[in-house]
Specification:
- By secondary structure, the protein is mainly alpha-helical.
- It has one domain.
- About 75% of the residues lie in helices and about 0% in strands.
- The protein has 4 helices and no strands.
- The protein is elongated, with a radius of gyration of 18 Å.
């Protein structure tokens, strides 16, 4: 069971990194629009969900890194995080951040099948995908922790 957790933390780390890169690409694009860009009449802006996603990914990468460190380092003095119940608290907090970000992104951008020929649209679609994959991974981790705790 512990190797499944390691795999899920590794996947969460990858999804977080991917989402961070995509969110940074999106915020860079919207803050540096060309005056001829039809998006927002060429005026720079940012989508409010993007900073939230950046924050969420940074927190998640730190948490995942810590948990992977604890898994592979048996001499660590941080014993309370080795318990499933304590880990569950952190996972639930991350789950709330991820569901907020993924749902907000999906609500804001919705179905983008009409514009997939444009790079910014592809970035948004990938961003939504990574957000939901991260949330699904966290959901699986929470289910495993709840099953073990009970």
């Amino acid at each position: 069971l512990s190797w499944i957790r390691v795999g899920l933390y590794g996947a969460l780390l990858v999804f977080s990194l991917g989402l961070l890169v995509l969110a940074c690409a999106r915020i860079n694009y919207t803050l540096h629009l060309a005056s001829t860009d039809p998006l927002n009449n060429g005026k720079a802006f940012y989508d409010p969900v993007v900073p939230e996603l950046i924050f969420t990914t940074l927190i998640t990468m730190g948490w995942s890194g810590l948990m992977l460190f604890l898994f592979f380092n048996n001499t660590s003095k941080i014993q309370f995080l080795r318990l499933y119940g304590d880990e569950l608290i952190g996972l639930v907090l991350l789950w709330l951040l991820w569901i907020g970000g993924a749902a907000s992104a999906t609500t804001l951008w919705g179905n983008l099948s009409f514009c997939q020929q444009f790079s910014p649209c592809q970035i948004i679609s990938a961003l939504e995908t990574f957000a939901w994959f991260g949330w699904i991974t966290l959901t699986a981790m929470i289910i495993i922790s709840v099953v073990v705790v009970i």
